[in-house]
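Lab notebook: predicted structure, single chain.

Context: the supervisor wants predicted structures on file for every construct in the current expression panel, including those that have not yet been purified. This is the next one on the list. No modifications to the sequence; it matches the entry in the shared construct table.
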Amino acid sequence: MMMNPAQKRAQLEREAILSASPARLLTMLYDRLLLDLGRAEAAQQNAQWSVASENLIHAQAIVAELSSTLKLDVWDGAADLMAIYTYATTAMLNANTSRDAARTRECIDLLEPLRQSWHEAAQAQSAAAPMAAGALSVG
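Prediction complete. Output recorded below exactly as produced.
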């Protein structure tokens, strides 16, 4: 059975997700979260309310997933991060119900630095992994 280009792309995306490390999954979620928020903001500015709503709802689902996987008992900063997620969720709900692009922008400004930090942490982790593996194989 031949796949059309959209089906092929979807299959490749599924395979990328299934084979991704936990750090890569986290950065992928943040990338999509900020993509959704950017799309929602643009749609709100153009009075495309259904597009904005769809993107804000998807962004909320991502934050819910991030919240559900946050282990509050493992990391001292987890409670603060959970508070950011809770605030962002409320702000996204309000941005959606009040059709407020400024609220959506507030979420972008709040979450973009976190996205950057997670990307930096993932890069540092992947850079350290080969060194650690090399150190283990030295005999």
